[in-house]
Specification:
Elements (H helix, E strand, L loop, with lengths): L1 H20 L7 H20 L20 H8 L5 E7 L2 E7 L4 H14 L5 E6 L12 E2 L4 E2 L2 E7 L18 E10 L1 H7 L3 E4 L4 E5 L12 E4 L2 H4 L6 E2 L5 E2 L16 E4 L7 E12 L2 E8 L26
Parallel strand pairs: 2-3
Antiparallel strand pairs: 1-2, 4-5, 6-7, 7-10, 8-9, 11-12, 13-14, 14-15
Length: about 325
């Protein structure tokens, strides 16, 4: 607590110096707003710590707003092109998507504000971007399995895992424009649905099509509909939930990763932590790896995680 008080004493001094630098009222409204933004952040910082109120700096006055401003905001927020509304320093800031037709949108807004006696407002034009709705780790088919992630389709010859040499060079395929979602083959067979449904939005994003008959490979690529591609996040998540692009490891590279910490993001495990203990275990239907739980009380994977990608954060190459 002593260190906290020292830090806030220094912050108070910073505030007092900023007050001396603040331009006189009315000289430049933009510069004045910038200083007020800083003061608001300083005040919020003081309020987040349990300090006596009498130790708060005397900063911004309490601004008043028209009686019907909340009613006006309800109307304005639903107007075409409006991103959001913010009450700030006695004024209503209205953020508008600059790609929309400005005069049509602002006419609707001005009328709603006039009816509700709101005269202090400003328009802020901004660029907006649709957030991804689907990402690696989402549950699919009502939590039967997990969406492994999204990749670009590459045309490669199909080779049995038992017949493929460990050190054979990868064949060079042609990159198609199609984005595919990776899911578990056996989960798709259990779901018995003709389309891939991601639970976060409960909407189909692609047709299942033919299910390959190679039981050795429990992974199925599903072509994503073109209308949904822009909603799909191609990145994967680190164990700290940081989204990054991924690079597929060759089987021969796994030897160097033995003993490394790996993770997955599944419908149930978010995340699951494990340790790669064996990289070339042989089973009746091909090569396998063995992953041990990192903590006894927290299993690496649970029922419902089928389809999740096992990831390793390569901090040296930042992938």
């Amino acid at each position: 607590m002593l260190l906290t008080r020292c830090a806030f004493d220094i912050l108070n001094i910073v505030y007092e110096n900023l007050q001396m630098l603040k331009p006189p009222h009315g000289i430049s409204s933009n510069d004045e707003a910038k200083f007020d933004n800083i003061f608001e952040l300083i005040m919020s910082t003081f309020k987040s710590i349990c300090l006596p109120v009498n130790e708060y700096p005397d900063m911004l006055p309490d601004f008043t707003y028209p009686q019907n401003i909340d009613k006006a905001i309800e109307i304005v927020a639903t107007a075409p092109g409006v991103v959001l509304c913010v009450k700030k320093r006695g004024m209503l800031e209205i953020y508008i998507d600059q790609s929309k037709t400005k005069h049509v949108t602002t006419d609707i807004i001005r009328n709603a504000l006039h009816v509700n006696d709101v005269i202090n407002f400003t328009f802020v034009y901004c660029k907006t971007k649709q957030l991804s709705l689907y990402e690696s780790g989402d549950s699919v088919f009502q939590s039967l399995g997990t969406l492994g992630g999204f990749v670009r389709k590459v045309a490669l010859p199909s080779v049995s895992l038992r017949d493929q040499s460990r050190d054979s060079a990868q064949s060079v395929g042609s990159m198609s424009a199609n984005t595919v979602a990776l899911v578990s083959r056996h989960v798709v067979q259990l779901a018995q649905l003709p389309v891939l449904v991601v639970d976060s939005n409960a909407m189909p994003i692609g047709n299942i099509g033919n299910i390959h008959q190679n039981a050795e490979i429990d992974i199925l690529p599903v072509d994503v509909d073109e209308a949904c591609v822009h909603l799909c996040d191609p990145k994967f998540r680190t164990d700290l939930n940081v989204r990054m692009y991924a690079k597929l490891r060759k089987s021969g590279d796994l030897r160097a990763l033995r003993g490394s910490i790996v993770h997955l993001w599944g419908a149930m495990s978010q995340p699951g932590h494990g340790i790669l203990v064996e990289h070339d275990a042989t089973a009746g239907n091909g090569l396998r790896i063995i992953i041990r739980d990192r903590r006894r009380e927290a299993p690496f994977a649970q029922e419902g995680d089928s389809g999740a990608m096992v990831c390793y954060h390569d901090r040296e190459n930042d992938v």
